[in-house]
Amino acid sequence: MNFHIVTLPGDGIGPDVTHEAVRVLQDIAEKFGHTFTFEAHRIGGNAIDATGSALPQETLDACLKADAVLLGAVGGPKWDDPRAKTRPEDGLLAIRKGLGLYANLRPVKPHPALAFASPLREEKIHGVDFIVVRELTGGLYFGEPKERRKANGHVSAVDTLEYHDYEIRRIVDLAFKLARPRKKKLASVDKANVLASSRLWREIATEMAADYPDVKLDHVLVDTAAMRLVTAPASFDVIVTENTFGDILTDEAAVLVGSMGLLPSASLGQGTIGLYEPIHGSAPDIAGKGIANPLGSILSAAMLLRHSLHLETEAVTIERAVERALTDGCRTADIARQGERVLNTTQMTDEVIKRVQ
Ligand code: IPM
Ligand code: MN
């Protein structure tokens, strides 16, 4: 089969890890008889420098024509001025909105060989295997009004947390569907004891549960969910939540697997186009040194094969190869114990490719 993939390497270690994920995809194409074409475009800080915009129109147009988009990371100290008109992160928000990517999937499944790397005791990590479904185009990130106000000699700032019924329905529906082939447990996370938007969220999720009698729905308050993620992370199966709660909880969840460098994500929407990116940031301190962990990006490429290209066998093949590399003791600096041999970005990818069979 023929597929066209747009890459958005971005800033910092984004280009380093995206390059490696592309190598793995090319290897998969060769071994399974597909043709993948790749086309790189700008996003984030480098796009601001080159064009003044964090998401140039040309980039968005290219993404709209692609079968899938693979993103590295955006941002860095160079563009950190809080008074700057445009920030690299604006590019990320604009592409989510521009491609209608309302669902962000972040699977969390620690590898047994890396349980030591988590700050939690190993027995708590045992059996952890859940996926967070984060709403991505609503809530505080996009709600209007969003502005500064001046009145009576004081300055105030306002953000708006708004959700429409259809926005809640489509994301909760996706979460129910994801729970079905898994352990059939859905935790809907909200703050219904305080927020009106959460009360609507909870009401709709409860209504929808009637369509999924085989899935057990629980409502969990976000503060309780934050606590349970560290006291009993293995109790979760699928978590669905609004944008800001999901942003915070997924960083918390990331530490369970031992390193941010390992986690992939998929952003999906109404169209067929999906965007895939590791959840780690641009890590400017190690950019260009060739030592970043490529596994988050490689596993994002596996999600791309699964969700956008519907190549499940190929996706599982990559995931198994990564698992085996870790089982066999392959380690980048972020997941190595003292005295262990440390691989660089390219060497780690080579080890994965060797195990793609
Ligand atoms: C993430 C990031 C982004 C977000 C930032 C960079 C805008 O933290 O993807 O989780 O808050 O969504
Ligand atoms: Mn985040």
Helix amount, in percent? Answer: 25-40%
CATH fold label of the largest domain: Isopropylmalate Dehydrogenase
Q: Bound small molecules, which ones?
A: 3-isopropylmalic acid, manganese (II) ion
| Strand arrangement across the biggest beta sheet | 2-1-3-12-11-4-5-10-8-9
Radius of gyration from the CA trace?
Answer: 20 Å
Strand tally is 12
Shape: globular
The biggest sheet amounts to: 10 strands, mixed
Strand content: 15-25%
Q: Give the helix tally.
A: 12
Query: CATH architecture of the largest domain, please?
Result: 3-Layer(aba) Sandwich
| CATH superfamily heading of the largest domain | Isopropylmalate Dehydrogenase
Distance between the termini: 19 Å
Q: Give the class from helix and strand content and strand pairing.
A: alpha/beta
**Regions with little confidence, pLDDT below 50 for 5+ residues:** none
Number of domains: 2
Short account of what is shown:
The chain is α/β, with parallel strands linked by helices and 357 residues long.
